[in-house]
Amino acid sequence: RKEVEQDPGPFNVPEGATVAFNCTYSNSASQSFFWYRQDCRKEPKLLMSVYSSGNEDGRFTAQLNRASQYISLLIRDSKLSDSATYLCVVKRGDQAGTALIFGKGTTLSVSS
Amino acid sequence: DVKVTQSSRYLVKRTGEKVFLECVQDMDHENMFWYRQDPGLGLRLIYFSYDVKMKEKGDIPEGYSVSREKKERFSLILESASTNQTSMYLCASSFLGNQPQHFGDGTRLSIL
Predict the structure, then answer these.
(1) What's the pLDDT score for residue B85?
(2) Residue B62 scores a pLDDT above 80
(3) Rounded CA gap, A44 and A85, in Å?
(4) Is A79 in a helix, a strand, or coil?
(5) How far apart are CA A31 and CA A28, in angstroms?
(6) Does position A96 have pLDDT exceeding 60, yes or no?
């Protein structure tokens, strides 16, 4: 089982749609979780951290289910500018210098 | 704002050459990372460092080495470049602990 798994998509949705991405991770000792966004031929950029209680940032909501080792990202009222690849990211542990593990990404295409 | 600077956006080298990719960050981050990103494979960690002169192997260190002589600078070295090292190389940095990483713009390296 891969350490971080995502549905690669692509997800093709109209403007205004609500879309949800899921991600599972295999290491139960994982401590920190993030969603990154990557535009075509650009570097990944942090979209939001994911907290145990769930968190929201505008149209974006992130949820974490530690028991099921599952992370989700919900985008409401999709905009054309949301078109990108969304990377689920997990930190393996809490030790100094522990690396992040990236999923392969889910591609979203929002059309008018 | 965090700034991670990679020395080149595009680089073309020949098989067998020794190649240096440089990365500098200006936020006094302890952690620095080198990834490569290939279609269908996502981001894969090559090496990382959590302190000056410290280095740790990532998931795919073969054919690479690194150098961290100063806190702000992390160099990736291809000892003898091969065509299968043609890729997008991304440098990132972060504070210790559960902090997200910030990426440079990437270097698109072609080995002919």
Answers:
(1) 98
(2) yes
(3) 9
(4) coil
(5) 8
(6) no
Tokens 């795919």, residue located: B60
Q: Predicted confidence band at B99 (pLDDT cuts at 50, 70, 90)?
A: confident
Interface mutation vs chain A, best among B49, B55, B60, B98, most A CBs within 10 Å:
B98
Rounded distance between C-alpha atoms, residue B1 and residue B58, angstroms: 27
Print burial letters for B92-109: b (CB count within 10 Å at least 16), e (below 16): bbbeeeebbbbbbebbbb
B42-54 tens-digit pLDDT: 899 999 998 898 9
pLDDT band for B97, please (50, 70, 90 cuts).
low
Q: Which two tokens stand for residue B9?
A: 């956006």
Which of B41, B98, B103 faces A44 most closely, judged by CB atoms? B103
Please judge whether A97 and B30 are an interchain contact, meaning their C-beta atoms are less than 8 angstroms apart.
Answer: yes
Percent of chain B at pLDDT > 70 equals 96
Q: Write down how long chain A is.
A: 112
Out of B40, B56, B101, closest to residue A100 by CB? B101
Cα B25 to chain centroid, rounded: 12
Using the beta-carbon criterion (under 8 Å), do B98 and A96 form an inter-chain contact?
no
